[in-house]
Design brief:
Radius of gyration of chain B: 19 Å
Largest sheet of chain B: 6 strands, mixed
Shape of chain B: globular
Number of strands of chain A: 0
Structural class of chain B: alpha/beta
CATH superfamily of the domain at 13-202 in chain A: ABC transporter involved in vitamin B12 uptake, BtuC
Strand order of the largest sheet of chain B: 6-7-8-3-9-10
Distance between the termini of chain A: 41 Å
CATH architecture of the domain at 13-202 in chain A: Orthogonal Bundle
Order of helices and strands of chain A: HHHHHHHHHHHH
Structural class of chain A: mainly alpha
Largest interface: A-B, 26 and 31 residues
Strand content of chain B: 25-35%
CATH topology of the domain at 13-202 in chain A: ABC transporter involved in vitamin B12 uptake, BtuC
Number of strands of chain B: 13
Oligomer: heterodimer
Largest sheet of chain A: none
Order of helices and strands of chain B: EEEHEEEHHHEHEEEHHEEE
C-alpha cells in the first residue's frame, strides 16, 4: 500500500480532522450544488465565494476564525443580492457581476492589510486556498453544526424550491412565494460556500459546488439520484485530494507538497470529464 | 359588456365580477364580467394581445386588478386557490433532471415545506392522473427529454394533480399540428367530465373547440362577449364588441371573422369556425 498511501496518513490527527471536515463539507456542497445547477445560479454561487472571501479576509484582520467571516459575509452579501435582485435573467447577471467585482476588490484591500501586519502570517494563503490541514480542531464542531443546519434547511424547502426553480410562474400560482424561497436558498448557498471555502479556499470553492453536481446530473436520471451522485463525487474528490496532497510531500526529494485545493480541483476535473464522456457515449448509443 | 348568467343547472366555480386591469397605465381589461360553472368547457377566444393571458393571470391572483373582483369557488381569488394552470410556452431544457412522475407529484405537494416523505396518497394520485392523460408510459422519463406536445400534456397532469375546481390553459393548442389539436381537446373533454373540473382554454382559433365547448368568451378591445358559439360569433355581436364593423362570413361551411372595413390593409381573417 505504500505506493498509494504514504506513511503516517492514517495515524496523523491533522489528516483525520481534514478527512472528517472535508467529507462533511463535500456532502453539503454536493446537495446544494445540484440545486444551483438546476436553477442556473453557478455565477451567483461564484460571486458568493468572492463575498465570502472578503469576509474571511476581514475575519483574519480582526483575528476571528475565517469560517465566521466567510459565513457572515456570505449570508449578508447573498441576502442583499437576492433582496435587491430582479426576476430578469440579464439584470440578475449584471447585479451578480457588480457584487463579484466589488467583493474581489474589497478582498484585495483587506488581504493587503492582512499581509502587511505580521501577526497574521499565512492568513492570505488560508483565505484564498483553504486551510484544511491547519484548521484548528475547535472549528470542527462549528463546521459540522453549520453543515447540519444547512442540509436540514435545504431538505425542508426542497419541494417549493424545486417547483419555483422549474417555473416561478407555476409556483407563484400555487401560492409559493418565489422571492422568499429564493432568499432562503441563497442563505443555504452562502453557508455551503463558506464551508467549502474553509476546506479548499474561497477561490476554488465554486469548483466543489458545481463540479460534482454537474457530473452527477449528466449521469443520473432523477434529482434524488443526482443528489446522491453529487455527494459521492464530492466526497471522493475531497478525500482523494487530501490523500494526494499528503502523498505529494514524498513525490519529490524537495518535499514540497501540492496544496489540497489543487488536488481536489484536479479530481473534480477528472470526474467532470468522465461524466461528459459517459453522457456522450450514451447519446451515441441512443 | 357583461354576459348572461349561468345556466340554472350549473354551480358557479368562478365569477369574474366587473374586473378592470391596467398594465403600465393602459387599461387592458375593462368591466369584464362572466361566470363559469362547474364542469363547463369554455373557450376564451381572442387575437394575440387581446388580454387573454392577463385575464387568466387575474383569475389566478398573479395579476392585480384595478377594479372589480374575482370570486373562485365562493371565495375571493388568491394565489394557491383551487385552480390549475398551464401557462403558455413553457419549455423545459433538455437536461432538466426531473422525472415526469416527480414533476406531476409537485402539482400535489410542491407547496409543502417539511421533512416528511412523499406519501402513498400522492403517488397514487399521480398514477391516476398520468393514466387519465395517457402519460403512464412516460412516468420515468426526464421532462426535458420529451417533445413540446408531451411536455404540455405533462403540465396538464401537473395542473390537475391537486384536484382543482377550475383548469386554466393559456393557448395550449398554439404549437400543435391539427391531429394533436383534436387529440388534446378530446383528452381535456374526457378529463373534465371524469374529474368534474371546469376548463377555460384560451385560443385564437375557435374552430376545433366548437364540438366540445359549452360556451365561448370572446375577448376584444378589453371587453368580453359570451354565450354559445351561435350567439356570439355573429356580425352584430362582434361588431359591438370591437366597436367597429366586423363581418362574419360563411365560406364553404366555415365561418370567417373579418375585422375592419373593406379595403382596410390591416384587415385579415381572424377566427375560423368549421
Amino acid at each position: 500500500m505504500h505506493w498509494l498511501v504514504e506513511p503516517g496518513f492514517w495515524s496523523n490527527p491533522v489528516v483525520g480532522t481534514a478527512l472528517v471536515l472535508g467529507a462533511v463539507v463535500a456532502v453539503v456542497s454536493g446537495a446544494v450544488g445540484v440545486v444551483v445547477v438546476v436553477r442556473g445560479q453557478s455565477f451567483a454561487g461564484h460571486a458568493l465565494t468572492d463575498v465570502a472571501m472578503a469576509g474571511g479576509a476581514g475575519a483574519s484582520l480582526v483575528g476571528a476564525a475565517p469560517l465566521v467571516g466567510f459565513l457572515l459575509a456570505g449570508v449578508l452579501g447573498g441576502g442583499s443580492m437576492e433582496a435587491a435582485g430582479t426576476e430578469r435573467v440579464r439584470d440578475r447577471d449584471v447585479a451578480t457581476g457588480v457584487v463579484l467585482g466589488a467583493a474581489a476588490g474589497l478582498t484585495a484591500l483587506l488581504l493587503y492589510f492582512v499581509s502587511s501586519s505580521s501577526s497574521a502570517t499565512g492568513s492570505t494563503q488560508s483565505v484564498l486556498f483553504g486551510s484544511v490541514f491547519t484548521v484548528s480542531p475547535s472549528v470542527v464542531p462549528l463546521g459540522v453544526a453549520v453543515a447540519a443546519g444547512t442540509l436540514a434547511a435545504l431538505f425542508v424547502v426542497r419541494r417549493p424550491l424545486l417547483l419555483s426553480s422549474l417555473n416561478p410562474e407555476l409556483a407563484a400560482a400555487r401560492g409559493v412565494r418565489p422571492r422568499a424561497i429564493g432568499l432562503a436558498f441563497v442563505v443555504v448557498l452562502a453557508a455551503s460556500v463558506a464551508l467549502s471555502a474553509l476546506v479548499i479556499g474561497a477561490i476554488l470553492s465554486t469548483a466543489l459546488l458545481v463540479g460534482p453536481a454537474s457530473a452527477a446530473l449528466r449521469v443520473a436520471r432523477g434529482l434524488g439520484g443526482a443528489t446522491l451522485g453529487a455527494i459521492a463525487a464530492g466526497v471522493a474528490a475531497v478525500e482523494l485530494g487530501i490523500l494526494a496532497s499528503y502523498d505529494s510531500f514524498y513525490w519529490s526529494s524537495a518535499h514540497r507538497s501540492v496544496p489540497v485545493s489543487a488536488c481536489v480541483v484536479g479530481v473534480i476535473l477528472v470526474e467532470v470529464a468522465l461524466s461528459a464522456l459517459w453522457s456522450r457515449a450514451r447519446a451515441r448509443r441512443g | 359588456m357583461g354576459c348572461e348568467p349561468l345556466p340554472e343547472d350549473r354551480r358557479e366555480v368562478v365569477h369574474v365580477h366587473r374586473v378592470e386591469v391596467a398594465l403600465g397605465g393602459r387599461t387592458v381589461l375593462h368591466d369584464v364580467d362572466f361566470r363559469v360553472g362547474e364542469g363547463e368547457f369554455v373557450g376564451l377566444i381572442g387575437t394575440n394581445g387581446s388580454g387573454k393571458t392577463t385575464l387568466l393571470r387575474a383569475i389566478l391572483g398573479l395579476q392585480a386588478t384595478t377594479a372589480g373582483e374575482v370570486i373562485v369557488a365562493g371565495r375571493p381569488g388568491r394565489r394557491g386557490g383551487p385552480v390549475g394552470y398551464v401557462p403558455q410556452r413553457v419549455a423545459f431544457d433538455h437536461d432538466v433532471p426531473v422525472r415526469v412522475a416527480d414533476f406531476v407529484a409537485l402539482g400535489v405537494d410542491g407547496t409543502r415545506l417539511g421533512l416528511a416523505r412523499r406519501g402513498r396518497g400522492v403517488r397514487e394520485r399521480v398514477e391516476a392522473v398520468l393514466a387519465s392523460l395517457e402519460l403512464s408510459a412516460l412516468a420515468g422519463r426526464r421532462i426535458g427529454a420529451l417533445s413540446g406536445g408531451e411536455q404540455q400534456r405533462v403540465l396538464m397532469a401537473h395542473a390537475l394533480a391537486s384536484r382543482p375546481r377550475l383548469l386554466l390553459l393559456d393557448e395550449p393548442l398554439a404549437n400543435l399540428d391539427l391531429p394533436r389539436v383534436h387529440e388534446t381537446i378530446a383528452v381535456l373533454d374526457r378529463v373534465r367530465r371524469a374529474e368534474g373540473v371546469a376548463v377555460v382554454l384560451s385560443a385564437h382559433e375557435i374552430g376545433p373547440l366548437v364540438p366540445v365547448m359549452d360556451r365561448v368568451i370572446y375577448i376584444a378591445q378589453g371587453g368580453v362577449a359570451c354565450g354559445t358559439t351561435e350567439e356570439v360569433v355573429r356580425a352584430e355581436v362582434l361588431s359591438a364588441l370591437y366597436g367597429h364593423h366586423v363581418d362574419v362570413l360563411t365560406v364553404h361551411g366555415r365561418v370567417v371573422v373579418v375585422e375592419g372595413e373593406a379595403g382596410d390593409p390591416g384587415a385579415h381573417p381572424e377566427v375560423v369556425v368549421r
